[in-house]
Design goal:
Strand content: 25-35%
Oligomer: single chain
Distance between the termini: 40 Å
Order of helices and strands: HEEEEEHEH
Radius of gyration: 15 Å
Shape: globular
Structural class: alpha+beta
Helix content: 25-40%
Number of helices: 3
Length: 148
């Protein structure tokens, strides 16, 4: 599979604004960035990174890949809303993420590629490009700072 096909899938399936009701308030979430990275683990997992009051990254890992979604909300979100937000996003976006990963696992030979960069803020760009570099170099993406 050519990388262009993965770009097309990301553009068609993930480059969109999503409107959800969170804590009885409508919130528009815009997917600004998508990064696909090959990882060693075949397990299913997700992570959530807050970058600012209205920007965050949802990382979904499955089948030897992690898809990072950079998302911007139209307003500041309270920390208490994050569990509901993650649940809604996973429920809504898992089919599109699975499609992207299914296509990638067939022929994708790269380590990591940025598939969507749609008007990301400087902070989000910095986060995504540091992830991209780490994945391409084969470095650990997460640093453990405390003993588990």
């Amino acid at each position: 599979m050519r990388i262009e096909e993965l770009y097309t899938i990301a553009q068609r399936e993930l480059a969109k604004d999503l409107v959800f009701e969170i804590e009885d308030e409508p919130v528009t979430l815009s997917i600004r960035g998508v990064l696909l990275a090959r990882v060693e683990s075949k397990s299913y997992n997700f992570s959530f990174f807050e970058l600012s009051e209205n920007e965050f990254v949802l990382a979904v890992q499955m089948k030897g890949f992690t898809v990072y979604l950079g998302i911007e909300a139209d307003e500041e979100l309270e920390e208490e809303a994050y569990p509901e937000l993650v649940r809604i996003l996973l429920e809504h976006l898992t089919p599109q993420i699975a499609l992207l990963i299914t296509k990638a696992e067939k022929d994708y030979r790269g380590r990591a590629d940025l598939l969507l960069d749609d008007d990301m803020s400087p902070e989000m760009k910095e986060f995504f490009y540091s992830l991209l570099v780490k994945h391409r170099k084969g470095e650990l993406v997460y640093e453990q700072t405390e003993v588990a």
